[in-house]
Amino acid sequence: MTDPETSVPRLVGSGFVILLAGAVLGVSALGVTIRNGITEWQYALAFGVLIAVGEMVQFRVDSSRNRAPIATSAALGYALLRPPEVGIPPDVAQVVAVTGLATLAGVVPRMFVGLRWDLVVSCRRVLSVACAAAVFTAVVPGDLYWSGSAAHTVALTGVMLLAVLAAATVDALIGAGQATETLNQPFPSALRDEVVMAARIGMAMGISAILLAIGTSLIGLWGLPLVVVPLLLTQFAFRRFASARRTYRTTVRSMARSTEIAGFSSPGQNARTAGLAVAIGNDLGLRPDRMEALEYAALLSGVGQLALADPSPGGASLLRTRAERQHAAEIGASVIERSGVLDHVAEIVRHSNDPYRQGRANNSQIPVESGIVNVALAYEQLVGEGSGQSPEKAMESIGLGIGAEYDPVVVESLRRVVGRGFRF
Amino acid sequence: MVLVIALIHARPDVPTVTLGLLLLVGVLLRSRVGPVRASLDYVVHIALFLLSGPAAAVVVSVLLPLTQDRRLPLMRRVFNGAQAVLCATAAAGVYVGMGGGRRAEVLESPGRALIAATAAIIAWLAANALLMCLVLWLDHGATSPLTFLRKVAAPTVLPLTGYGLLGVLLAVVWIGGLGVGAILLVVVPLLVARWTLSLYQAERDAQAATMRAFIQVIETKDLYTRGHSERVSTGVGMLGRHLKLGEDRQQALEHAGLLHDVGKVGVPTRIIQKPGRLEDFEMDAIRLHPARGVELIGSIPFLEEVKSAVLHHHEKYDGTGYPAGLSGENIPYFARIIGIVDAFDSLTSTRSYRPARSIEETLEILHADRFTHFDPNLVADFVQVIRAEGWTAAAADQPAPDGTVKAGIDHDDLSLGTSGGASGSAAGPTES
């Protein structure tokens, strides 16, 4: 079973490269820093502690990657320090060394306690911070500092924005590459998702970093609590939201399982269908919000059966005729609609049993997700537990329905997904 | 009067004007989080202490009523404005008293400015809470001042103090040379904070709505139990508030009430809809429903109490219930609560074999069975709650009882020795 939340992504390829790059960069930066000596150790220590703490309190929203906004803001902020309060601003090597060491210091406790950790994600931060530091020092002349004059401050802020932007770009590129590799998402759509994410969460982290740098440059270490305390509060609020969201997701999954308990589908059938639907959705490069609706729709596609009479002992085989299945889909959609919060999901479920020729081929209003759920359901019925056909045979049967029953684009995608070795 | 003094001292400088304008568009900085209006606009005032001095902050707070929802009555808006002026004055007094400076002085002694500003924020919040308490006390409304302090003021004081620091940050960045541009930078964390505060509630609401919709599907199996879960959820909610449960447990109890019969999805519709007396094997199928329910919701990270309540809501106080035959205090607290409300709702709704009982009659049945079936103390509480608050009985769209059905028993219709109704296996394992 492929469960997007629990499956371990294959990180051997890009993950290894990122780790190697991070390690090489970190070690050489550390070497340079040791040779040159550390400047303004109070600031290095304070920011290092912040990064480590931020790393320790990192969190996840759904299956997307770990977020450690405080660590990111602190590391970027450290890279953007300038006088007057900071006598000698840290050079690039020192920024990288402090970020790297602090990140390790934050990850190691998580390893020991058994919390979720991902060195590759942490490594990506070291790389992007190094990039921001390099851009910043390259563009800002040595004598430009927070003098209070309007021209200086505007120029400095502008360059800070540029540096943060550079960091975001590097991170988005790396992230998109990783998504392409692990989820088999097409690179352009993976990049689009990363950029959208960077524009939302990334921008907030970047601006916080700039505020942190300005505040610290102006009033010294007193500037840290001014940014960090609100940031910490926001992060706590966000974690609370993330846990509510997880609860919600498991609620939907549990409800989907009710068809199994009621005997309408075989154990695990909904989860298998959803796993396949998600794989196809990734392959087609759907946006994240649509992916979520797709997963819910695949999970809940059978819920309408609950309102029907009892299943025959044969389970799902009862609902083989088209009319019955479409009736169940219609009921399911109205049930889901009743919740008032899953309208997209209802729309997908409503058309999930329409044959392609009478449905999507003529009506572009019907979302492609309906076609995906349709194909995923069919493939699961053929290959899933109990029916046990070989994938090749199943592909052959589905191939016979191309254009009439199934959306050709989706079937092509299924062929790729199965060809890459997708197994339930 | 305070206002007049402030007006004399205030000078209309750039920060006062721009931040005043910001306040006017400050609807941006507000969000509705549950019953509390989480307003982050006092952040602007805090910035003004450091930028233009306390007098300016007091003057600007007069603008607040203008930004408020036009649907509020004028009196209310004027009152809120006056409240803001008083809060600002209190905060200003503390800020000056603690020796907080302004403009260049802030950068010279940032520590003192920071501490003074923090104290001013706390003074602001304290003044606000005090005034609210005063109003609630004079109002004799539904919320008592104590409830307000416990439920609204106490949990928000720490976050609001923390976010107040953004005001100090705004001032520092402004004084440092960025001027008006500082607003652009600081607005981002403020907006993120506001967004985050609203997300959580949205997710919780979605969760509740989805569970309701789902429960309704399961109840389509049986016309007679339609709305039962919702009503039980309401009922346990009323009892829970009477028992003064904490916020989290109250929510959990209501969830448990809503989900207690979710396992019925695994009971064949044929059995649920069967009129008349059930065979033993059919009753056994029904007895499985608590376990099925836990199987279904087991992976949802609810409080353990929700799951144990779903599993044990058919236990009886004398130990003759199912599935585990627990007795007395061994039955989980939530399960005892739900058991009472569950029975109450079943008895007051129509069944295929009998019309709905009246509320008084039902309360007497509960009372009569308080040692055999229910927790006597909780029954006493529940009777009190229903007598005080009333009960909206089952919806009228229930079908009338089927005259042809002579005997029969619903799984939760467990009445009840002396008061008539079912006995024997339907009410649980027979004592032997």
Automatic annotation (TrEMBL), chain A:
The reply on keyword Transmembrane is: yes
Keyword annotations from UniProtKB, A to Z: Membrane, Transmembrane, Transmembrane helix
Give the top-rank taxon of the lineage listed in the UniProt record for this protein: Bacteria
**InterPro entries reported for this sequence:** Cyclic_di-GMP/3'3'-cGAMP_PDE (IPR052020)
Residue ranges annotated as transmembrane are 12-34, 92-113, 125-146, 152-174
Instruction: State the protein's name.
Output: Response regulator receiver protein
Origin species:
Kribbella italica
